[in-house]
Automatic annotation (TrEMBL):
Cited function: Catalyzes the stereoinversion of LL-2,6-diaminopimelate (L,L-DAP) to meso-diaminopimelate (meso-DAP), a precursor of L-lysine and an essential component of the bacterial peptidoglycan.
Main location: cytoplasm
Catalysis: reaction(s): (2S,6S)-2,6-diaminopimelate = meso-2,6-diaminopimelate
Enzyme Commission number(s): 5.1.1.7
Catalytic machinery residues: 72 (proton donor), 195 (proton acceptor)
Descriptive protein name: Diaminopimelate epimerase
Quaternary structure (record): Homodimer.
Pfam families, sorted: DAP_epimerase
Organism of origin: Spirosoma utsteinense
UniProt site (Could be important to modulate the pK values of the two catalytic cysteine residues): 136, 185
Keyword Cytoplasm among UniProt keywords: yes
Length: 258
């Protein structure tokens, strides 16, 4: 079976053209092995591109642990680049993911992905929590560089307040419109270089708590992203027209031999 490898700001994915629908998608051990950085290809997740009667394509996303995940923003940007590379559309696309419809626009340098609307921001156990397609906690800190993201992220990830777990993002304000972010990802169970739904969550909370204006510029370990949004219904915790914008590239192709 052929595979492709894509990365978006260092969040990397095994990408498979599964338009024939033959990939063993219920075999969690196979997916986990393909994502393993020692025994497999190595990736933060695996994504199937499938057909859909009403859309350009359908995205099916699995975390590195092999389980089907909630929405993945960087994976969404990567599969848009993949579909574009396959010639499935010209500049603009409409596709279906686990959280519903997404649209995206492709330029040479960037993919701009429309994210699902955000319906609320909660405080759980004193932690700021919201769902941007995946569940996220957002915390701001003064010293991001020396933070033990894995230890602190894992403790919050396993907090009983979050049934099913949560991803955990730590942000440090760099200037009036820029936040640097590090993320502990559920399903990878480690820090990743970037998390698209995570930086989206951070941008919205930077607006809500710190009055940071739209768009918010984000620095991750793996590169820079931009999040634009519109508050909805006169609320500072509901958002629409959310766009996640930044680079996504094919890195290599290969063949899975067993
Ligand atoms: N890396 C992804 C997030 C995956 C979410 C996943 N870790 C989960 O909560 O199931 C992103 O760019 O949005």
């Amino acid at each position: 079976m052929d595979f492709f490898k894509y990365q978006g700001t260092g969040n990397d994915f095994v990408m498979i053209d599964d338009r024939a629908g033959t990939f063993p998608r219920t075999d969690q051990a196979v997916i986990e092995r393909l994502c393993d950085r020692r025994f497999g290809i190595g990736a933060d997740g695996l994504i199937l591109l499938q057909t859909d009667p009403d859309y350009d394509f359908r995205m099916v996303y699995f975390n590195a642990d092999g389980a089907e995940g909630s929405m993945c923003g960087n994976g969404g940007r990567c599969i848009v680049r993949f579909a574009h590379d396959l010639g499935l559309f010209d500049k603009e696309t409409r596709f279906l993911a686990v959280d519903g419809e997404h649209t995206a626009v492709v330029t040479d340098s960037d993919i701009s992905l429309k994210m699902g609307d955000v319906s609320g921001v909660e405080s759980r156990n004193g932690l700021t929590f919201l769902n941007t397609g995946s569940p996220h906690v957002v915390q701001f800190t003064e010293d991001l560089a020396s933070l033990d993201v894995v230890a602190q992220g894992r403790a919050i990830r396993n907090d009983a307040a979050f049934s099913g777990g949560t991803n955990v993002n730590f942000g440090q304000v760099i200037d009036d419109h820029t936040v640097r972010v590090r993320t502990y990802e559920r399903g990878v169970e480690d820090e990743t270089y970037s998390c698209g739904t995570g930086v989206t969550a951070v941008a919205l909370i930077a607006y809500r708590q710190l009055a940071m204006p739209d768009p918010v510029f984000i620095q991750t370990i793996g590169g820079n992203l931009r999040v634009s949004f519109k508050p909805m219904n006169g609320s500072d915790s509901q958002f629409g027209s959310i766009y996640l914008t930044g680079p996504a590239q094919r890195v290599f192709t290969g063949t899975i031999t067993r």
